[in-house]
Design goal:
The complex is a heterodimer. Helices cover 70% and strands 0% of the residues of chain A. Chain A has 5 helices and no strands. Chain A starts with a helix and ends in a 6-residue tail after the last helix. Chain B folds into 3 domains: 1-77; 83-276, no CATH class; 293-461, 3-Layer(aba) Sandwich (Rossmann fold). Chain B is built from 17 helices and 6 strands. Chain B has helices at residues 2-23, 30-49, 58-76, 83-111, 118-145, 159-179, 184-202, 210-232, 235-258, 263-269, 293-301, 312-317, 320-332, 351-358, 369-372, 394-397, 448-461, and strands at 305-310, 336-341, 366-368, 381-385, 416-421, 441-445. A 6-stranded parallel sheet of chain B has the order 3-2-1-4-5-6. In chain B, helix 8 (210-232) runs antiparallel to helix 9. Chain B is elongated, with a radius of gyration of 25 Å. The chains are: A mainly alpha, B alpha/beta. Chains A and B meet through helix 1, helix 2, helix 3, helix 4 and helix 5 of A and helix 1, helix 2, helix 3, helix 4 and helix 5 of B.
């Protein structure tokens, strides 16, 4: 473990905090689905474990991890998209008053 | 060259992930942003496959195919009402992946006849500990949300003592493995104990507290991925894990705040269990005024402003489509309808918003608590659908009430209140709700969906 990695961690956590604290409560469920999809990034580690052919046990553990992580990626991004597709603005169809109100926090 | 490509793909992925999350601040931009994030994921995966340590692609290919076959239905077919348990299961998967990779790393080192260094061991220790706690916890959470396990708090005497002892045991084993990585028993014991701890941690937590728990476990699973990144010296894992961790952390803070309770209280308080629900006023001597569908329809038909307050009861009754239909009828008659969403309404952050969006309610009619609370004073009718504790005035004025101090929706400020409720059972917290006994409140008893359907029928005749 190097100091550089600690830098990356602290900065990423900081950026994450700044960005995510501006997500409105309206989209909190899609946010959870989105972070689920992004957490599928553990596929990166799983691929290495499954493909490095170190020994049988590691390969099988890696294989299960690949299944878990890739199903999260596929399922997570699909469901986030499905959810976000449902959020429609009332503008145009709705009343003028509703249109005047910005919801972009 | 190869390393350059790999690192480049990770950099692109990180940027697209951050931009994707940023797009979630705007509902009209969010979809495009998340599609770009998905593209970023593709970059990261392809980049990883270039890694020279990967020499055998058979297991990888099989795993990817199975993952896609499992992931597609989880993404496309799971109904929106099942979203809380769906999220919990996804957290189980991601935490399980992190744990298994951690074990695989450790096993490989041992198999080679060596042991990981102290720093790597610390990362691996945290990875499997946080991962296993999340696996244990999310399985129970999913079971409770799907009602396979009772959603009531499961408590027994000395519970906190038992959990405390196990937690101490975890820390001891963690330190032991870091100090002496050759202690294999401690490493595997750490995993087993973490699983048990995760299970015991969530068992005493009731259904209404699930938003906090799911958010907290989300944060743990992110940190587990982060630890994996430290163990493998992989920046994309560290960055994505930190983003996940931050998201879960922020959500759990917001949820706790919305309930005016600390983490410790949520995790160790077993809210709503019989021992703690003793406080609060009893309903003795008070009467409720029940109302018929006809009268309720007339009130709604002539209202200028109706504020709808949805709660978990609406989700249970699957009444969101009927709610939208009723709102449209009121609007057709010239009234205005707004939806007031409490941050902890439902079983996960933003639960009500997703259900209403699914029922085609435009999102500019959905208001957060802070935005809408001042408007109740000019509302003619506050229509409470399957919500209880989030409109209980005891939170404001009864110091003995367990929910005292929790921010609530000011339904009692409206000129009249109509409550759709199955019966007079107390809310989740087991506390009587004064609002139901208020002289301006009328109760419309029955299943929310059938009541709404009846209301819609009446409205057409008014």
């Amino acid at each position: 473990m190097q100091l550089l990695e600690l830098y990356v961690f602290v900065l990423a956590a900081f950026v994450g905090y700044m960005v995510i604290s501006r997500v409105p409560p309206l989209l909190h469920t899609p946010l959870m689905a989105a972070t689920n999809a992004i957490s599928g990034i553990s596929l990166v580690g799983s691929l290495i474990a499954a493909g490095a052919a170190h020994n049988r046990v590691s390969t099988i553990l890696g294989f299960i991890a690949v299944v878990c992580a890739s199903s999260n990626i596929v399922g997570g991004f699909l469901i986030t998209d499905r959810m976000l597709k449902m959020f429609k603005s009332g503008r145009g169809a709705g009343k003028a008053e509703a249109a005047g109100r910005g919801k972009d926090a | 060259m190869r390393d350059f490509l790999i690192e480049g793909s990770y950099l692109v992925a990180s940027v697209l992930f951050i931009l994707g999350l940023r797009s979630l601040t705007r509902p009209d931009k969010a979809r495009r942003g998340m599609q770009q994030a998905a593209l970023g994921m593709l970059f990261a995966v392809v980049g990883t496959l270039l890694n020279h340590t990967i020499i055998d692609f058979r297991w990888i290919a099989t795993g990817l195919v199975i993952g896609i076959v499992i992931g597609y239905p989880l993404g496309m077919w799971v109904p929106m009402t099942a979203m809380p348990q769906r999220i919990a299961i996804a957290l189980t998967f991601s935490a399980l992946a992190a744990t298994l990779v951690g074990v695989s790393e450790y096993y490989t080192e041992v198999h080679r006849g060596g042991f990981p260094g102290h720093a790597t061991m610390a990362a691996l220790g945290f990875e499997v500990m946080l991962g296993s706690i999340t696996v244990g916890g999310t399985i129970i959470a999913a079971g409770k949300l799907q009602e396979l396990i009772t959603s009531k708090p499961v408590t027994y005497r000395g519970q906190n003592l038992v959990n405390g002892v196990i937690f101490l045991g975890l820390l001891v084993m963690l330190v032991l493995t870091i100090v002496d990585p050759s202690q294999q028993a401690a490493f595997y014991g750490l995993i087993a104990a973490s699983l048990v701890f995760g299970v015991l941690l969530v068992m005493p937590i009731g259904g209404a507290d699930m938003p906090v728990v799911v958010a907290l476990l989300n944060s743990y699973s992110g940190l587990a991925a982060c630890a994996m990144g430290f163990a493998l010296s992989n920046t994309i894992l560290i960055i994505s894990g930190a983003l996940d961790g931050a998201s879960g952390f922020i959500l759990s803070i917001l949820m706790s705040k919305a309930m005016n309770r600390s983490f410790t209280n949520v995790l160790f308080g077993a809210f709503g269990s019989e021992t703690t629900a003793g406080g609060g006023k009893s309903a003795a001597g008070l009467t409720v005024r029940s109302i018929g569908v006809e009268d309720a329809a007339i009130q709604l038909a002539y209202a200028q402003l109706v504020i709808v307050i949805p709660g978990y009861g609406m989700a249970v009754a699957q009444a969101q489509h009927a709610v939208r239909e009723l709102a449209e009828l009121i609007e057709k008659r010239g009234g205005e309808v707004k939806f007031a969403v409490h941050p902890v309404a439902g079983r996960m952050p933003g639960h009500m918003n997703v259900l209403l969006a699914e029922a085609n309610v435009p999102y500019d009619k959905l208001y957060d608590m802070d935005e809408i609370n001042s408007e109740f004073d000019r509302a003619d009718v506050a229509l409470v659908i399957g919500a209880n504790d989030v409109v209980n005035p005891a939170a404001r004025n009864d110091k003995s009430s367990p929910i005292y101090g929790m921010p609530i929706l000011n339904a009692d400020h409206a000129k009249s209140v109509i409550v759709l409720k199955r019966g007079m059972a107390a809310g989740f917290a087991g506390i009587e709700n004064e609002l139901f006994y208020d002289k301006r409140t009328s109760m419309l008893f029955g299943d929310a969906k059938s009541s709404l359907t009846a209301l819609i029928g009446e409205m057409k005749n008014v």
